[in-house]
Description:
Blueprint: E1 3-9, H1 18-25, E2 28-34, E3 58-61, H2 73-87, E4 91-95, H3 97-105, E5 109-121, E6 124-125, E7 136-145, E8 151-155, E9 160-165, E10 168-171, H4 179-187, H5 193-196, H6 201-232
Parallel strand pairs: 1-2, 1-3, 3-4, 4-10
Antiparallel strand pairs: 5-7, 6-8, 8-9, 9-10
Helix pairs in contact: 1-6, 2-3, 4-6
Amino acid sequence: MARKVLFIVNDPVATAGMLTEAFAGNGFDVQTFEVVPWSRVHDLKVDVTFPEPAGYDVIVALGARWPVYSGLPWVAAEIRFVRDALSAGAAVLGVCFGGQLLAVAHGGTVTRSAAPELGWFDLDTEDPALVPGGPWFQWHFDRWTLPPGATEIARTAAASQAFLLGHSLALQFHPELDQALLARWIADDRDRDIENLGVGEDDLLRRTAELESDAKRRVYQLVRTFISRADGEGRR
Length: 236
């Protein structure tokens, strides 16, 4: 029987991108759970009942345009869901908003960053077998403080980029990003982040086209290593 991964799609524009193929290529049955649908992006106080986590081997909490500290009731519910998933023996991968959510779930904090990052950035990594140095795509305005017991494994000058704690891995960057997903994000840049940060839209598109093939290889490596190490801990 194929193992199961559940992608938590918090924001309808922040889908799983290249992570979908990476998990499917490693023998996983891919399922998704939508938190905020398109019809509610201007009215975020949705009533969300998260699924039972016990039936999944891996949970992937994806990104969102809203901060973890927004006070939205479903954010608190998702933090509880992540804790329940870890207690049930699932491995949890958090991406950007999802990584920050993992930080809070483990007792860390998330605050506004004085140095937001948007574009492709190299990382300083202590564990290149799991998180290669990059470059990796960033689009974030917040940063976490490491929760107690976490091991930071990657960072930039502006922010912590990856930590491990138990069978969870938090990422600040976006391994899922490909050209199609970037085009959606640019089209949906309602707050004009690209313009406000002085980033060239054409440069983003060109750089993404140049790096997508190598980024795909590194995404597969990250997912394979994450799964292998989680399995090695004897989660079940």
